[in-house]
Please model this.
Amino acid sequence: MLEIKNLVVQIEDNRILNGLDLTVKDGEVAAIMGPNGSGKSTLSYVIAGKEDYEVLEGEILLNGENILEMGPDERAAAGIFLAFQYPLEIPGVGTMTFLKACLNAQRKARGEDELSTPDFIRQVNKAADKLEINKEMLKRALNVGFSGGEKKRMEILQMALLQPQFCVLDETDSGLDIDALRIVSEGVNALRAEGRSLLVITHYQRLLNHIVPDTVHVMSQGRIVKSGGKELALELEASGYAEYRASEAA
Amino acid sequence: MADVTNLRTPAETGLSKLFEVARMKFPTGVSIAREEAFRYFEAMGLPSRRVEAFKYTDLRAALKEAAPPADAPGAEAAHRALDAAKGFSGIEALRLAFVNGHLVAEASDLGRVPQGVTLAPLNEALAAGDRLLEHLAPVSQARENPIYQLNAAFMADGLLVHVAAGTKVEAPLHLRFVGTGAEAFSTATRVLVVLEADAELTVLESHEGPDGVAYQPNDALDVVIADRARFHHTRLNGEGREAIALSTISARLGAGSHIETVNLVTGAVLSRHQIYLHFAGEDATATVNGATMLGNGQLADSTLLADHAAVGGVSRELFKTVIDGDATGVFQGKIIVEQIAQKTDGKMKSDCLLLPDEGQMMNKPELEIFADDVACGHGATCGAPDDDLLFYLMARGLPRTEAESLLVQAFLGEALESVTHEGAREALIGEVETWLAKRA
Model:
């Protein structure tokens, strides 16, 4: 599914990723954990195609195709989805208008017909019900005045509608209370499928109690420094990141 | 003065000649006022950038030649022009059509006027010495403005609208101003709307004309709003690409009255829309918005003066400009709070979105406050679309132009929300979409 090889990335002369290698197989849920400043969010932005970052070396292959030359919209159409750590508020853009525009833009890019309005509304309502998203929220401007939890649920709603192949969840648990964490996790779990892989970025193990990963990777100083199964997350929760910080420093 | 006379431009000399010819043809009535207006204009000349109010819109430089006033067009030409004009056409309305500044009676609904409303062609009203004419030019500051005075000197046709006390007119009045012709021409129309106490009226104005002809419309709308009356006004500047389009709305607000006026601009190589508000009665409220979309070579100027001369007035002004390419937006807004006008609440804002970085926006907000218990403020912003918002939208699959379009629609939408008439609001949103589609 996704293969990252020797990725070296900088922003304004600050090197953030230092030869990162990572492979996520079809249908796999991979978790990336790591201390603050280890480059986790940078990785998510670089996968999604944010322009501020300069890729100096390496490649990101989605099903064998290098996506680094593609714009963010082309990557989205190819099946990449980033659930933002801080979803943006867009005053004046209605949530439904936004959802429909995104869905149709992706369909168009893939050479598919546009969705009819009734079909679109049916799909949105179905996905919104599962995520316990209030219909009133859908009538408002995108994310404007939404609580942290509502914004995260809106991200997962978009993920459910767009049906991407490869999803990056950037600290989706931040700002969520216990109930919201459960709802969001259930939403994500419902999207686990053959042919869809997830990269879950988090500081804490608690999210991984809900979204149980197949693999766990520890990131430090812009590299994957250790990989293992889900038990690695528990070890980290017990021992902290000190060991990895120390090993980097040495 | 002799020096000034020596420096007259060809356009100024031309206007003097045209006035000498045209005055003989004008209908009688207000002829003294007409004469005075022209002499006033003549003494001032076309304003250049040395005149503060025209600092960013140098009419003296822009108006190379004075185009002759257009004659009334033939029936066939008039109908052809009207058929081609699409502004607000989807809205159920009472329509009054003006082609090249002349009322086309056959294409106007003069015969099906609702009860409580009186319409009279300006020509007839002038000839008959209509009593309503005393309401012309209701705001004194406008009478010191050269554009408005030129209109007063040359006004050739227009309309008088009277709405009786307590009459709430359901269907909007749609004033269609359509230009046609292959040679440069000028027009000067004057519409006077008088709303008696507690009356309510919606007026839609659409301005359209040929591309490739440097015609020069100068339109004025005078509005007298009596106590508690409500006036809703939506204006669409879809003038031809070479037009130099000048316009003025001046309104006098009675106690507890309300005006909402929104101007959307996509047309004309140079346009200047002037808004004069005089808060004469207590607790009057005004919403004045503008949405301007400019492409290469265009200049659009919105100039506003809100004169609070009574207690408790509220004014809200929001101007939004989108510039795509080498174009110039101008916003000049002045709020005056006279000593008597305590408890005035005035807020004015101008925002500009520069799509590429070639355009420029000139903002000049002014507050002149003589009362001590008021809340007034102004603000201005200018910048490119937010990169983070663009990335968010693109990461969801929207190509850059579509993402930008969505942000532009949202940006301008804020200025269009205040349009009370749903059909008019949707029509303006449609204009934004059309402009964006042409851009893409």
In short: The first strand of chain B starts at residue 94 and ends at 99. The first helix of chain B runs from residue 2 to 6. The CA atoms of residues 345 and 375 of chain B lie 5 Å apart.
